[in-house]
Amino acid sequence: MSNRIHLLPDTIANQIAAGEVIQRPASVVKELLENSIDSGATHIKVIVKNAGKTLVQIIDDGCGMSGTDARMCFEKHATSKIRTVDDLFNIRTMGFRGEALASVAAIAQVEMKTRLHNEPIGTCIEIEGMKVLKQEPCQTAEGTSISVKNLFFNVPARRNFLKSDNVELRNIFEEFQRVALSHPKVSMQLFSNEHEVFHYKSGNLKQRICAVFDAKHEAQIVPVEERTSGLEIYGFVGKPDFAKKTRGEQYIFVNKRFVKSPYINHAINVAYEQMIAKDSFPFYVLFIDVDPQRIDINVHPQKYEVKFEDEKLIYTFVNLATKHALGSYSVMPTLDFTQEDSLNKNKTFDQVSSWLVHQEQPTLKVDRKFAHDFHSKSFDADSKVQSNWEQLYETKLSRANDTEEVVEKKVDELFHDRSKEEAVPYQIQKRYIVSNIRSGFILIDQQSAHERILFEHYIRLMAHNSKTSQQQLFPVTLEFNAVDAQIMVEILPSIQALGFDVQEFGSNSFVIHAFPAELQVHNERQVFEELIEQYKNNLSVSKLSKRENLAKSLAYSTSIKRGQQLSVAEMRNLIDELFACENAYLSPNGRHTFITMSFDDLEKMFSGK
């Protein structure tokens, strides 16, 4: 039998490796920007065409490269950052593994022009699919210019999986802004199809935050700055009254590298407890500088994740630093900072770590579904509620073979023989609606129920284009950042089909002339901010069609919220509309819209059996 195992050709191996590092045009922008930062550039220009699918060009005024280095940088694992194993644990630069340029060159047509400072002549290299087509001296500016053309030209399957231009451009904007936030002293520009989208001038962190987000942020943020041996935390957090219903403006950087860390996010959010609503999210741009030997940044191909040697120490330090900042600027009503004396700047990193070992390990609190709040020894919400519900009303979701006639009949049975006097609904804590049924009572989550009603309503409107609009007495102008504005452009035709009259007004601004007739909108900005954030979240966590994503996002942003007082007529109308839905049992997010409790269950619970 012949041998079956063999080595892959370099071209195929490089294309496979490129898939880990370069997933979309935004990955190219990220990797090349990091190289420009490492080169010591003070000004960086990014040029993209067709959302980076046709061209991504990065021009910087960094140190440049010699002819030999210019050729070597495209080789796999070629790097100037690592020479020994010990160097792996002392990394402070952005790029270090030597994968970016090799990966890009394997799946694109690349042209690089570079010149060392004080050298009269530079070098021009052209590479296509890892094959060097040309290398020759050339006249070029000091620094480096890299043009990446026709990404995935030799991997058509990968190119076919790219999203629409709006989606890919939005990802590029996000990567660009992350680098811009982490390096405020670097002047940065971004052009899309010859139109300047961003122009951030050199400045300090606060100025860069105001440039990236909004000038109004200046009055709404407070500085964070805490240091101890081997660990430093600095940046800005938002005042509690600046918290939003969306989580988009939250950034964490470790050694100036953007990372995603639910653990650190939780530490910050806990510092805001009892100051903001549970469904609100604070603003923060925080930097954690830590000894490179105490972290591992090589755990993710794109370096979005990081491992800390002592996560408990980082958690507590971030939490206390946030509390201290809020307390110092009188934005906390009360501040329990009894641990401050034990965690001061005179202590060493090791002393602080030793002290924290004996403290209680922080735990993540889970926001349980309402149905589980009834969980006890005598009542299992997961099993009995489902069982009770199936006895009363078998939905299309749980019984696919039920006909519409059977479902309608069982809905009628659920509310059979209810008189108005017997079935007056009422609210509990402005969150839940209680209503009598023949065999017991039903408990409805008013927000989840309304989301289900609106979701199916919006799906029908988009399918039949049967919109009705209510004109605004005074048109409202809203301005968004470039990323959110790009989403607005993407969803504009769909929301107009729902009855929104929204028009572009130039430079990331939009004018709202009308809302769907059935909506009662009191805060236009909040509605659209929640819509955009939910739309982005749905893109990353589920495979919804564009229509379903928009309907789900809009249902959340325009639904009745928990904490909203309802009249008896409004509660009755909500109940009637819920059980007219095709799937009345679950909200679009998979949350139960209601649970039922029979008199038999109540008797068992009170009898203790």
Q: How would you portray this structure in words?
A:
The chain is built from 18 helices and 22 strands. The chain has three domains: 10-203, Histidine kinase-like ATPase, C-terminal domain (Heat Shock Protein 90, 2-Layer Sandwich), CATH 3.30.565.10; 206-357, Ribosomal Protein S5, domain 2; 368-609, Ribosomal Protein S8, Chain: A, domain 1, CATH 3.30.1370.100. Strands 5-4-3-6-2-1-7-8 form an eight-stranded mixed β-sheet. Strands 9-10-13-11-12 form a five-stranded mixed β-sheet, with helices on both faces. The chain is of the alpha+beta class. The protein has helices at 10-21, 25-38, 67-72, 100-106, 156-160, 165-182, 205-212, 262-271, 311-328, 349-357, 384-392, 404-414, 446-464, 482-497, 524-541, 546-558, 568-578, 599-607, and strands at 43-49, 55-60, 109-115, 122-128, 131-138, 143-149, 187-192, 195-200, 221-228, 231-238, 250-254, 257-259, 284-290, 295-296, 307-308, 426-428, 432-437, 440-445, 469-479, 501-504, 509-516, 594-598. The termini are far apart. It is 35% helix and 22% strand. A hairpin with a 2-residue loop joins strand 11 and strand 12.
